[in-house]
Amino acid sequence: MASYDEKFNHALNYLNRPDITNPTGDKPICYVTYDVRDAIDMKRIIKETLIPKAKYFGFEVKLFSIGQHILEYLSNYPDKDELLDDSYSEDEIFESLAVETQETKWMEKAILDFQEQVKTAEHPLIVVTDLEMLHPLYKMGLIENTIYNKITVPILVLYPGEAQGFAKRFLNFYNLDGNYRSKNF
Predict the structure, then answer these.
(1) Is the separation of the CB atoms in 159 and 153 below 8 Å?
(2) What's the per-residue H, E or C state across 107-172?
(3) What is the pLDDT of residues 90-104, one digit of tens each?
(4) What is the pLDDT of residues 39-55, one digit of tens each?
(5) pTM
């Protein structure tokens, strides 16, 4: 817990200082990595530690749950009956959804739409949660690269995995991915 506490302090301090990040061209987005085994505990840590800390830094926290958006997307999926068709294997269904997710960029649009909704708050902070739900559909590095130049509200992504420099290893079993631009804590 102490290491997450320290990571949150560093990340919030970084995001609270746009004068430091913006002149260099950096966008106000960063990642706090956490051990995959702590995924369940992270829900509690968000409520008990991260949100109070962010409020102390003056942020108005807005949670963006990847899992909730995937669930909403699948609930409204036009060909939902095809997903339940026994003639398709699980791999075929996930592959089809992954291709559609990448082609339509619906997750990127959802994050940018959410940013538009919350930017009227006095000092908003978007905290992206449930990133593990992207597996096996998509990777956050691809999402970040698409939205990076459109980020105007500070975003803190809670990332299940590990980081080395700017590269990250999603869920600790994907290969190290260097497609990220943002700072890791």
Answers:
(1) no
(2) HHHHHHHHHHHHCCCCCEEEEEECHHHHCCCCCHHHHHHHHHHHCCCCEEEEEEEEEECCEEEECC
(3) 888 888 888 888 899
(4) 999 999 999 999 999 99
(5) 0.90
